[in-house]
Amino acid sequence: MKLSVYVQGRDVAVLEPAGDFKSVLTYQARTAPDDFVSLTMPVRTESWVWDDTLPPILQMNLPEGYLLQVLQEQFGPHIGASPIALLTVVGRNMVGRVQVAAPGAALDEPAKPIEVAEILQGDNSEEAFAELVRQHAASGVSGIVPKFLDAQLEPATLGPHQKVSLLTRRHIIKGSSHHLPFVALNEHLCMQVAAKLLPTAKTEISRDGQALIVHRFDVDEQGRLHWGMEDFCALLGMRPADKYDTTWERIAKAVRDHVPGHRQLDTFRQLTMMLLLTYALRNADCHAKNVALLYTSRADVHLAPVYDMLTTSVYAAYQHNPPGISFMGKKTWTPGKSLQKFIAGTFGIPVREQLQMVEAIAQALIEVAPAVRAAMIEHPGFADTGKRMLLSWQEGIASWRGRRVYALGDASLGDAFTGFSEPPKLKSENPVVGRSELLGKRK
């Protein structure tokens, strides 16, 4: 099976499998140098051969979990379920400027519409959102690609601990589940913090707090493909399943490899703020797929706006998770002075500038905290999650204002962080291995 690879609608390369576990991408003659498929695969006459079923840039957008099952059931009997076969279904509707399709296939077929306004105003229960997913996932020409980050599945629901999103030409639509209550509202509030500090994807929250609308930043105002986008899984040649296995050191090296020299210091400033913000928000889900580069050519490669930022410690399944990306060989929420030393030594950001960033993050949390309290009142079901968010933010700030990190001393975070009762303790979801369900429970 051969597929055509397009950059902004221009046919630039041919992709084909080589045996069961290799793939080959060959650029067309006269392909312009700036029409490269990936920063790691510049235009050349020699073919690019990967020891995997697909190059990383194309694995980046492959479906996982629930959508994978839907596509296999719908299309497997007709075209097979190999990764390259799935690309014939989803390849026209991916994040970034690259598209993949069978030779001669139309790239812009009519899209099955999703009314964003209806989602913002309507019922976004888990069951309703699952039905929306099922309606749109089965159509390879719908212009919509749902992405599921959890490989597990419960047949009647979105699956345990699912984080789910629908991709349209101009938006990404995310839902919540009973395992991750109000995760959409959680992310919206965290993105409000990030927006005060960094270029950040614009978000809107539905009236019921259960759905999040993220405005795509890889398209222009008309929803046409504009920016190339590669996450650091793709840039580092990693499979999506290995997204937690990279390090900030490797990310820094990739920045030096791909970002023009005059943009690197600003990129490292943004990465420093992102890293510090991850600690402040207690976001254990900042992994290699949640940090990316944008570009139209090699001359303008830069860090993508912040996306997928949330406080994960408020959910039972994630409460004990360490940071998603390691540095200096460790993943810990209590890094001590090694944090500032790492940032200064690897990102080149001096400690005095880091101190300014810490203060700016604290101020951003103070400014957004009243919105968390307001959401707790508007959505009673969010109250305990909101309390846990505020407590996590307070802990995050305190952890690096202490003498063992930046020695800034205690700071008042304002009235929004006080005056509420302690939320119920989260129950551990760690399963007991080797214990039969037929045995009586201990008293």
Write structural notes for this entry.
- With 443 residues, the chain is α+β, with helices and mostly antiparallel strands.
- Helix content is 34%, strand content 12%.
- The chain has twelve helices and 13 strands.
- It has helices spanning 56-59, 65-79, 83-90, 116-121, 126-137, 183-195, 232-235, 248-258, 261-281, 338-347, 351-378, 383-401; strands at residues 3-7, 10-17, 23-27, 48-50, 98-101, 147-148, 164-167, 171-175, 203-205, 211-215, 228-231, 292-295, 302-303.
- The strands form three sheets. Strands 4-3-2-1-5 form a five-stranded antiparallel sheet. A five-stranded antiparallel sheet has the order 6-7-8-10-9, sandwiched between helices. The protein has a three-stranded antiparallel sheet with strand order 11-12-13.
- The longest helix is centred in the last third of the chain and has 28 residues, at 351-378.
- It is globular, with a radius of gyration of 22 Å.
- The protein starts with a strand and ends in a 42-residue tail after the last helix.
- Residues 137-161 have low confidence and may be disordered.
Strand order of the largest sheet: 4-3-2-1-5
Strand content: 5-15%
Oligomer: single chain
Total helical segments: 12
Mean pLDDT across all amino acids: 84
Anisotropy-based shape: globular
Query: In angstroms, what separates the terminal alpha carbons?
Result: 61 Å
H/E series, N to C? EEEEHHHEHHEEEHEEEHHHEEHHH
Instruction: Assign the structural class, choosing from mainly alpha, mainly beta, alpha/beta, alpha+beta, or little secondary structure.
Output: alpha+beta
> Mind summarizing the main beta sheet?
5 strands, antiparallel
Radius of gyration, Cα only, in angstroms? 22 Å
Question: Roughly how much helix do the residues carry, as a percent range?
Answer: 25-40%
Tell me the total number of β-strands. 13
**Which ranges are low-confidence, i.e. pLDDT below 50, for 5 or more consecutive residues?**
137-161
